[in-house]
Amino acid sequence: MVTEVAIFIALPGKEEELGQGIIQGIEFIRQHPECISANATRCLEKPGRYMLSVVWSSLEAHVNDFRNSALFAQWRAPINGLFEEKPEVYHYQAY
């Protein structure tokens, strides 16, 4: 299993809208058969900062399968144009 951690930073004035978009979009991530779990949290100190945490069956399941699927476009649609630049995305594995 691999945990994807992505940090999204809302454009000024779009903090609430980004949060709502993440809530809508996360349902598409959860529909992927290789997604084990998906959660989003909001930073207390910086309310425009959100952390998405997704557990995938493998790195390939996220990078190749999900990102090249229609579900990826559906996940991103509610948040496009609401965050700064590209999100910071890293993958972690327990050891």
For this entry, give a set of tags.
single chain, 95 residues, four-stranded antiparallel beta sheet, 3 helices, ABM domain-containing protein, ABM_dom, Dimeric_a/b-barrel
What's the quick description here?
InterPro entries: ABM_dom (IPR007138), Dimeric_a/b-barrel (IPR011008). By secondary structure, the protein is α+β, with helices and mostly antiparallel strands. 34% of the residues lie in helices and 31% in strands.
Explain how this protein is built.
It is built from 3 helices and 4 strands. The protein is α+β, with helices and mostly antiparallel strands. The chain has a 4-stranded antiparallel beta sheet. The longest helix has 17 residues, at 15-31. The N and C termini lie close together (11 Å).
Describe the secondary structure blueprint for this structure.
Blueprint (H helix, E strand, L loop, with lengths): L1 E8 L5 H17 L3 E8 L6 E8 L2 H8 L3 H7 L11 E5 L3
Antiparallel strand pairs: 1-3, 1-4, 2-3
Helix pairs in contact: 1-3
- The total strand number stands at 4
The level of helicity is 25-40%
**What topology, given as strand order, has the largest sheet?**
2-3-1-4
Helix count equals 3
What percent strand? 25-35%
- Main pleated sheet: 4 strands, antiparallel
At CATH's second level, what is the architecture?
Answer: 2-Layer Sandwich
- Alpha carbon gyration radius: 13 Å
Note the run of SSEs as H and E.
EHEEHHE
| Mean pLDDT over the residues | 97
Gap between N and C termini:
11 Å
Specify the overall morphology. Answer: globular
- The CATH topology, please? Alpha-Beta Plaits
Structural class: alpha+beta
The CATH first-level class comes to: Alpha Beta
Organism: Dictyobacter aurantiacus
Protein name: ABM domain-containing protein
Domain ABM: 1-77
Pfam families: ABM
